[in-house]
# Entry
Amino acid sequence: MHDIPVPPLDPAQGDWLELDDYLDDFDLHYEQTRNRDSWKLERKQYFKESNSPSWNAFYRGDLAEAERLLKDEAQALREAAEEAASRGSVFHRVRITEQPLTPYVQWELRSLRVRSENGGPVRVVPAAAVSHLEGEQPLPELVVLGGRVLYQVMYTEESVPRGAIRFTDPASVERWERFIADLFAAGEDITSYVEREVVGDRG
# Structure
C-alpha cells in the first residue's frame, strides 16, 4: 500500500458528545446528507455487542444460526442503502484486520459481507499495511458524514461505546475523508477477503 499521510486530529479542537447525543447528532447529519458519500474506518479488533442476536449465536458456537440471523437483516440493509442512494449518497466502510483474526472480527466480517452485498460497500485493509502509519497509537475509530462532520468514536476499556468527539472544521473533515477514501481504494473487497481468510467460509 502506498504511503497515505495520517492527518492530525486534536481532541481539543472538537466537541465531546455523550453516547445518546452522538447517536442523535449522527442521525441528524446522516439524514441531511445530499449528493456526497459517507465513510467509516474501523480499527479495533473487538467491540462489545450487547444487542446482536447474531453475535450471541456466534459466541456460543452456533454458526448456522448466526449466519441465518445476518441474512435476515439483508432486506432492511438494502432498503437503507436505497434510501441513501436516493439522496445521492453511499456509505463506505474500511475494516482493518489483524492476523490471526479475533473471533469477533470473524463474525463481524460475515456481517459486513451481508451489508456489502446489499448496497453498503466494504473493503478490508490488513493491519500490516498501515503499521508504518500508526506509530505508538492505532488509527482512530472514525466516521465522516457527507463531508460535513467527522466523529471520533470513543470506547471504554471494555470496548463499549461511550460517545464521540465531533469535528466540524472543513479542512480537517476533508483531510480525513480523503484519507479513509484512499484506504478504501487500496483495500480488498470484503467478499473475496472473507472467502479466503474467514474460518468456515473457505472454498
